[in-house]
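Deviations from the work plan: none for this task. Representative record:
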Amino acid sequence: MMNLLVLQLLNGLQLGVLLFLIAAGLTLVFGIMDVVNLAHGVLYMVGAYFIATFAAMTGSFWWGLLLTVPAAIAVGLILELVVIRRLYDRSHLDQVLATFGLVMIANEAVKIVWGTSPLAVPMPELLSGSVPLMGPLQYPVYRIAIIASGLAMAGGLYLVINHTRIGMLLRAGATNRAMVSALGIDIGKLFAIVFTLGAVLACIAGALVAPILSVDTGMGESVLILTFVVVVIGGIGSIRGAFLGAILVAVVDTLGGVFGPILLRSVLDPSAAGQAGRMLAPMLIYILMAALLCVKPDGLFGGRG
Amino acid sequence: MTDAALTGTAGRPSAMSARVQVALVLFALFALFPPVVIALDDPFLILIGTRILAYAIAAMALDLILGFGAMVSFGHAAYLGFGAYAVAVLSSFGIHDIALQILAAMAVSALFALVTGAISLRTRGVYFIMITLAFGQMAFFFFTSLSAYGGDDGYALSQRSTLFGMDLLRSNTVFYYATLGLLMGLFALCHLIVRSRFGRVLTGLRENRTRMQAIGFPPFRYQLTAFVISGCLTSVAGVVLANQAQFVSPAFMSWHRSGELIVMVVLGGIGTLSGAIGGAVAALLLEEFLGAVTEHWRLYFGIFLVLMVLFSPRGITGLVQQIKGSRR
């Protein structure tokens, strides 16, 4: 039981850092540019397809990962330039429609380019296998590497946002966009940087997770909704909120699926508990979100409406 | 004229009659559709027609809150699902009467809309969009794990619903006209709601929330009521869709479906009711057309959507600009 708990906590943490990488970009885009971007999940999917292609081309996971980054930057810049830039002054409804259109385009384009069958990305040699944790418990090295690199990137993001000039502008932009613009900062350039940064983070998340998932067209969608829940819980525009929200959502989601039925078994008979558990588990995070919003309508760290 | 001026939306006295005129023309075209289909000898078309009518009901119901209440709900497909599963669940217990199924669908939808609406309406703007989307997904996942009704794979219905204990709806043509009757009845209802005092308060809240609050209208209560009404009406469309396909699955309530409903409303012009009906027709015909031409119709539909938003903002969302102007 204890082993299972540790194992699931680690799985939750691993999902959490991935969610954070995606949510960080999304929350900045929401907070600074006030743009609803439904296409953010698409970037996660595209990242996974990129590494699948590049790894197959070069025969190496590492080269694949390295090549994914410039490709992600290109995608982010192009997307911002062609579509997102024109949406800044639009109503949320227009933004929803245009980015919904982007989701349709991207999903279909991926099907055309890469086909409908899922792709597999080979695990890098260096990180395959498992390590013993405690007692008989083993944990895959690759998942530990995901957690470590995710945490490292979160730390890096923290440093950039809190201790650099560009980070200062980001924070200022999230608080008062008009004022930053009035102080002579090129807000257009700032927005392009923010969007591209978010795109790269989401692509990297997709690339990191590719070896342990099958890469297919639906993968962006489930993650997009989870990320929305994370951003709502954490508070729009708050990186710190996104981090805590991501870990919270991921841990609740992971533990709920495993321990929900076990806990229910103490009050219900086993088959009913299994059934109820399976139905309740996927709803847990939404219930968590609803409960939190009743107490704090702006999320954990959200100051603005 | 004076009557229209008194009851109409402020500053748009003639808009009311225009709305009804457009709707009447659409209804007349709908009514003429089955004879044309019989002449063409392609009975499958009548089922497509029924599907369009069902989405017209859903789009109109969404327009009630999107257009008149400025609430961008991205989770409305959930109510389609409640309607569809009301048919599946009740008929598995031997209750085939469509009136009872609609009643059950509305009851479940009202409850869901009341709870999720009460939470969602504490927020506005981006939050509202994301939260309604999240609650829609919650309903989606619930039905995905509902293994008694096929879970992900869905559940085939053994027969169409009955009307007053009779097997009338078995005929595709009768079913089509019954759906058309439903659409016309619900249009009249929505029209009355929009014209009523309640509807004008809702429109007032859209135009200037603070001012309405100041003159004594609590926004929350009115918006929540509209949200619940809209959810209930959308579930009726779900009941029709389940009967049309004789099959229910969680796919009815995926978030793509919610997005498509919004597209329909915007395509026809928001805040006009009849526009939502026209938008449903246009969107589904475009879908059918593109689907017939290429298997990658979503690509072209997506491009169409992006271009529409980027290059004809006033044409499609003139009213949105107004809403936005008052929000800033």
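Residues 219-245 of chain B form the longest helix (27 residues).
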